[in-house]
Specification:
Elements lengths: L7 E10 L7 E11 L5 E5 L9 E3 L17
Antiparallel strand pairs: 1-2, 1-4, 2-3
Length: about 70
């Protein structure tokens, strides 16, 4: 989904596995990424993944964005 500057925005997640049984994976959002016109990707992290794993995903349509978010509500 292109942002207001025409770039495609992606969410950056770090999959974190729980230490308890049954094993579950939690998806911790750690930043944003933007696809440039030449196909390269810039990644901006708000947190450093301790396991070194990152996954880029297109935003969910139900997820509020900076343009549509209501102040004080997430």
């Amino acid at each position: 989904m292109p942002d207001q500057n025409g770039r495609t925005r992606l969410n950056v997640f770090s999959p974190v596995e729980s230490g308890k049984e049954p094993k579950r994976t939690f998806w911790l959002r750690v930043g944003n990424a933007y696809v440039n016109r030449d196909g390269s990707i810039n990644v901006y992290l708000d947190a450093f993944p301790m396991n070194g794993r990152l996954q880029l995903r297109e935003p969910d349509e139900k997820e509020p964005t900076a343009d549509t978010a209501t102040p004080g509500k997430a």
